[in-house]
Amino acid sequence: MTWYYTPYAVAPAMAALICMAMAAMVWRRRGLPLVRAFLSLLAGTAIWCLFNTFELSNATLVGKVLLSQLRYIGIIVVPFAWLAFALIYTGRERWLSWRTFALPVALQVPFAVAIVTNDLHHLVWMPLELQYDAAAGLYYLAGGFGPLWYSHAAISYTLTLVGTVLIFRSLLRSPPLYRSQAVALLVGVLLPWVASVLFVTGHSPLPNVDITPIAFAFSGVALAIGITRFQMLKVVPAARDAVIESMGDALIVLDSERRIVDVNPAALCMIGRSAREIIGRTIIDLLPNHEELVNRLRDQEAATSELTLDRGRGLEHYDIRVSSLKDGRGHITGRLIVARDISVQKRFEAELQHAKELAEQASKAKSAFLANMSHELRTPLNAIIGYSEIIGEELAAERADLVPDMQRIGAAGQHLLTLINDVLDLSKIEAGRMNLNLEEIDPLPIVHNVVATIEPLLRQRGNRLDLRVDSPLSIVLADPTRLRQVLFNLLSNAAKFTERGVITLHVSDDHERGMLAFAVSDTGIGISEEQLGKLFQPFTQADSSTTRRYGGTGLGLAISQRFCAMMGGEVTAASVPGQGSTFTVRLPAVLAGSQEPSAGPYAPSGG
Q: Helix, strand, coil % (nearest 5) of the chain?
């Protein structure tokens, strides 16, 4: 073979290099079907251009014929690759099957065989001659085309035309980003085929030169721009159709002038108009009474809001989220509005609020009823308790055998009165009718008074009380009556659930929190971790079996917790089953006192 330099070989060589460079750019994303089709298109184009470069640079008949035959490997591949690319790009992957390509492949196979055996039948090319164009300094093949070549050309142009029509239809209905991609694709593909048609019909601007490879150089630039500038192969209309069109949320795309450039079906349903009616309109045209929301589109990069519409079919509520669309340089090019219909959620919220209000009213009515009934019940109970004590004293001298029965009546009445007092306290708290008298008090007198009161209960179960008071001790801000009630509840609970054990009351300052702490510990039955969560619920005991064995209503701890909260403090509990429990009351401390240390065991007399 004889080679020579011709400037006409530069253009196809550049086109081949551009194709290889683009293939390298997208190779890492070759797992995507669209990228694989694009790589096939680039490979066919590179083969076409590369062998065209060699053919133009060869000065022998045999060499030119052989290189022309090899060039058709790429020429045959390109139309098929282009159609496959167009099908995937426009979301028609289901058409990628052997049924779609069976007929054109079957027609191209005889052509491929005929290229190799053309000297025997001349069905592809008529007898070729090597000629030299002195004006252009170019060796070229002169001869006509055979019938199989025209068959091949018809198939190739048809495949290319189908793919081009698909891309063009996508261009017409695509938003700006995808429209730019489609334009780059169309330019990249149409240029070589227009050049091919001009050469075949004898209208090439360069006589005797196939300008198709030169066109490939320009199409390579167009495709490179599509990949780098418009993110082709990353985001395509097919993805938009598959995701955005099926979204339940309304989506509206605005340009920099707040004009609507794209909407999905959910947005059209929300607006109540067709795409033709709203594309190109400004957002203010659609929301004339929502200037504040519209202003956010101009002043903020991102915003959230709620939109309420009344179009004669009841209030419609939407959660609106606005975000900015930016170009590669960070400049805002538009806005994306996503609207989610929250009407059902709003109705549920309204129903829940109404139910909550009804429940609160019912709770207040119940608390008021309990408060009134408890007050009415206390009067006759006090009479029963008082008369039982009087009768018991009168019977002591004459009928001593009846005294225990009267004592049982008095004890039952006292228990019932305690229960009613607890219910009354709880109902007052829940009804908001409980008033506390907060004072700055010395806690020690209250502590000693409670210890003296609890002595009989301690003696009954053989328990010993250990009273520990740190010094100096702060003054506490509390209601004296309610503080006494809380401590009595905790100590009585400890005595009730402890038998022949030690109960400790430790009073100390919690300097870190500015509180005074009253810790009641026992060595009783203890409480499990699961049961601890139920301790402060009204009318609930940690374990139903304790009610049967130890008695109680489950109100004491609930009332104590509420009283402490009303005094600005808290009650906490810690326990180990079988080892005992510790309940700690913390109330706001006022200032440090100067009491003397008081520590040591407190044992009930006669215990």
A: 55, 20, 25
Which neighbouring-strand residues pair with 326?
332
Q: Which residue has the tokens 């690319």?
A: 85
pTM: 0.47
Residue 125: what residue type?
Answer: W
User: Is 185 in a helix, a strand, or coil?
Assistant: helix
Q: How many helices (H) and strands (E) does the chain have?
A: 20, 15
* Residue 30 identity: R
Helix (H) or strand (E) holding 334: strand 332-341
**Helix H or strand E encompassing 154:** helix 147-172
What is the 3-class SS of 250-299, one letter each residue? EEEEEECCCEEEEECHHHHHHHCCCHHHHCCCEHHHHCCCCHHHHHHHHH
For 66, other C-beta atoms within 10 Å of its C-beta total: 16
Any residues with CB less than 8 A from the CB of 456 and at least 6 apart, and which?
A: 604
Across the chain, which has 607 residues, the per-10-residue mean pLDDT values are 85 85 81 81 88 91 92 90 83 81 91 92 90 85 88 89 79 57 65 75 71 65 57 48 64 76 77 75 70 62 73 75 71 77 82 85 72 67 77 76 77 71 70 79 91 86 90 88 90 89 92 91 86 70 49 71 90 89 92 44 38
Tokens of 551: 């008695």
Q: How far apart are CA 497 and CA 188, in angstroms?
A: 89
